[in-house]
Amino acid sequence: MTADRRTLLLTGASRGIGHATVRRFSEAGWRIITSSRDEVPPECGRDANWTDHVTADLADIGGVEGFLAAVKELLAGSALHALVNNAGVSPKSPMRERLGCLNSDLAGWHEVFQLNFFTPLMLARGFAGELARAKGTIVNVTSIAGHAVHPFAGSAYSTSKAALSALTRELAVEFAPLGVRVNAVAPGEIETQMLSPETDQLIPRIPLGRLGMPADVASTIFYLCTEASSYVTGTEIFVTGGQHLF
User: Fold this and answer.
1) Rounded Cα gap, residues 95 and 100, in angstroms
2) How far is the C-alpha of 222 from the C-alpha of 224, rounded, in Å?
3) Which residues neighbour 132 within 8 Å (Cβ) at sequence distance 6 or greater?
4) Which of 25, 113, 152, 157 is an active site residue?
5) CA atoms within 13 A on the CB side of 225
6) Cβ atoms 23, 37 nearer than 8 A
7) How far is Cα 50 from Cα 47, in angstroms, rounded to an integer?
8) CA 20, CA 72: separation in Å to the nearest integer?
9) Residue-wise pLDDT tens digits, 154-203
10) Model confidence band, residue 132 (pLDDT cutoffs 50, 70, 90)
11) I want to staple 36 with a disulfide (CB 3.0 to 4.6 A). Which of 14, 106, 159, 239 is the partner?
């Protein structure tokens, strides 16, 4: 590995937005370290840039701590140029109904907030030194649901993403003296396995008239991790086809 080669650490890498993000950074020659609850499926087509995958349950505090230790060992004191907090969970009831404040289990809220909010906080704190050495970036993947009531996303998911948006702003201020930028990407209706079957009903509310693709989000994440956005921090970019305007 050359000294000027950049390193990406991405959570939630095995499908959807995570998978597309790996592909985008790999095209640019970055070294890629990833994580998910499961091993990387064969269809992901790992290449030489995708050097390491750490299987970890980041919804568990112990899993996060073990993941931090494993990645630090892989980095071996080298710099981390980008941390992308993409792993998230949006639980549904057995009947696929929206889980609100009154019809969802409180333990489920704790699990959602651990993965969607506390894990990004723990990883940002844990890799602060490695990010500072690179004058790197953090990108948190939030959601359109964190800004308005969504017909399908549950209350725990929506409020956890709203909290992650606020955390992005706080981290941007606190990490700025380290030379580290912190931003967020808020996807709308993106064609991933997380979509509800009824999502097509929302297309008339999207000005661009279509669902987004994972690559649409991945390219925005990539922009926020490069010099093209060197004066951008504390910002949340909506990748929604204009849906957030209504």
Assistant:
1) 13
2) 5
3) 178, 179, 180
4) 157
5) 29
6) no
7) 5
8) 24
9) 899 999 999 999 999 999 999 999 999 999 999 998 887 666 566 777 78
10) very high
11) 14
Cβ distance 218 to 175 under 8 Å? no
Q: What does the alpha-carbon distance between residue 97 and residue 99 come to, in Å, rounded to a whole number?
A: 6
Q: Hey, what are 174's tokens?
A: 């606190």
Contact 145, 134 (CB under 8 A): no
Collapsing DSSP to helix, strand or coil, 224 comes out as helix
Return the C-alpha torsion angle 205, 200, 188, 94, nearest 10.
Answer: 130
Contact 147, 88 (CB under 8 A): no
Contact indicator for 127, 115 with CB cutoff of 8 Å: no
Residue pair 19/217 in contact (Cβ under 8 Å)? The answer is no
What is the token pair recorded at 36? 């998910």
157 carries an active-site annotation: yes
Tokens of 187: 């996807």
121 neighbors 164 (Cβ within 8 angstroms): no
Structural tokens at position 144: 């359109």
| Phi/psi at 175 (5° precision) | -90, -15
CB atoms under 10 Å from CB of 55, counted, come to 15
The amino acid sitting at 32 is I
Query: Which token pair is 41?
Result: 């499926």
Collect all residues with Cβ–Cβ distance below 8 Å to 157 and sequence separation of at least 6: 88, 89, 90, 91, 112, 116, 143, 145
